[in-house]
Amino acid sequence: MTYPNGKVALADVNVSIQGGDFVFLVGPSGAGKSTFIRLLIREQVPTAGNVRVAGHDLLRMRRGQVPGLRRRIGIVFQDFRLLPNKTVWENVAFALDVTGSPRAIVRQRVPQLLNLVGLHDHAHHLPTQLSGGEQQRTAIARALVHDPAILIADEPTGNLDPVTSWEIIQLLIQINELGTTVLMATHNQEIVNAMRRRVLALEGGQLVRDEAAAAYEREY
């Protein structure tokens, strides 16, 4: 991916992530992690090469097919991005409402997800009445409404304290064990070192390491 100003965001990055994997994406700020994620959700298209996600060739995909792709991909951000004037229930339901899901599906799906993330008792709370961890759990429930094949978590613990961060990681592990592929971009070395999952490391737009059961930094 080369931007119009000539900046090379990603160069010769060749990666294959299999269904059911749990993968960490690491690297310093400006390494290309955000561009990598934007390519996966077709927010951008590469200037060279190919991107295939969930069986779709993203370069050949028509604009009208992009919403369908994004329903196959759940996305969680560092800053939660909840609708402030809607309750926990309404934030999760909204993601179904905008795609025209029948009310019967909404009434069935939302409680299932709130139970999964441990927020059933907070269904009628506004985001301002929640802790940071509870807000992130709400965001994860919203990301899972369409039962996505892939969950992309972009710095999901970046605004959380260490204890809450581990609670969110345990939830992501649970989601992964239910069959969802998880790609987590993070700067949190402690979590990566403890988890020992596959690590993709970017530096200067290049993939410098693709290692199974790895630590945050290369071990010699």
Main β sheet profile: 6 strands, mixed
CATH topology (level 3) name of the largest domain = Rossmann fold
What is the averaged pLDDT score? 95
Give, in order, the helices and strands.
EHEEHEHHHEHEHEE
The CATH superfamily of the largest domain turns out to be P-loop containing nucleotide triphosphate hydrolases
Do you know the CATH architecture of the largest domain? 3-Layer(aba) Sandwich
Q: What can you see in these coordinates?
A:
With about 220 residues, this protein is an alpha/beta fold. The protein folds into two domains: about 1-70 and about 150-220, Rossmann fold (3-Layer(aba) Sandwich); about 80-145, no CATH class. The protein is built from seven helices and eight strands; from the N terminus they run E-H-E-E-H-E-H-H-H-E-H-E-H-E-E. The chain has helices at about 35-40, 65-70, 90-95, 105-115, 130-145, 160-175, 190-195, and strands at about 20-25, 50-55, 55, 75, 150-155, 180-185, 200-205, 205-210. The strands form two sheets. The chain has a six-stranded mixed sheet with strand order 4-5-6-1-7-8, sandwiched between helices. Helix 3 (about 90-95) runs parallel beside helix 5 (about 130-145). It is globular and about 45 Å long. The model has no long low-confidence stretch (mean pLDDT about 95).
